[in-house]
């Protein structure tokens, strides 16, 4: 009986380690357009995240990696991940697999069909304004927190 328990325990530990070490499933690059402003989610080499007019450039393309913990959004140009903190700041950092870099995408049926992106760690939603700033706020259902997602 002890041998069986050890085998089950060892199998469980190995399976958990494999899930952590193997990256999630990648999907085609996506562009995110804010529903309220019609500006696209963008980034740069210094890690700033903002919105600006859509241009389909690589700084506005995000590879999505899906796993059971949420979605990692990796910028195509910089290979850095969308990150946030409890103060509501958004930025990109080297991808580290942490929950501040994991997002839940919830489909919102609002006529045009958009997505709400909630940070797994803070439970705050990705938000924007007409000035091009991005940040996270408590989820409120407003269009500044809704994003069209277009696969490129």
TrEMBL record:
What highest taxon heads this organism's lineage?
Bacteria
Lineage start: Bacteria, Pseudomonadati, Pseudomonadota, Betaproteobacteria, Neisseriales
This chain's protein is named Ricin-type beta-trefoil lectin domain protein
**Organism, scientific name:** Chitinimonas arctica
Q: Which residues form the Ricin B lectin domain?
A: 29-150
Quote the PROSITE patterns the UniProt record gives: RICIN_B_LECTIN
Q: Which GO terms describe its molecular function?
A: carbohydrate binding
Task: Identify the keywords attached in UniProt to this record, alphabetized.
Answer: Lectin, Signal
Q: Which CDD domains match?
A: beta-trefoil_Ricin_AH (cd23415)
Q: Where is the signal peptide?
A: 1-28
Please report a single Pfam family linked to this protein: Ricin_B_lectin
Asked if the record carries the keyword Signal, the reply is yes
């Amino acid at each position: 009986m002890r041998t069986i328990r050890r085998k089950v325990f060892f199998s469980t530990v190995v399976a958990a380690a494999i899930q952590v070490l193997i990256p999630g499933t990648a999907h085609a690059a996506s562009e995110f357009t804010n529903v309220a402003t019609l500006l696209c989610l963008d980034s740069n080499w210094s890690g700033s995240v903002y919105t600006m007019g859509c241009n389909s450039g690589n700084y506005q393309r995000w590879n999505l990696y899906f796993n059971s913990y949420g979605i990692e959004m990796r910028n195509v140009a910089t290979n850095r991940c969308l990150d946030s903190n409890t103060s509501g700041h958004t930025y990109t950092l080297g991808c580290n697999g942490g929950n501040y870099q994991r997002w839940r995408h919830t489909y919102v049926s609002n006529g045009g069909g958009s997505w709400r992106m909630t940070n797994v760690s803070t439970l705050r939603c990705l938000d924007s304004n007409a000035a091009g700033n991005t940040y996270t706020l408590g989820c409120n259902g407003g269009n500044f927190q809704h994003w069209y997602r277009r696969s490129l």
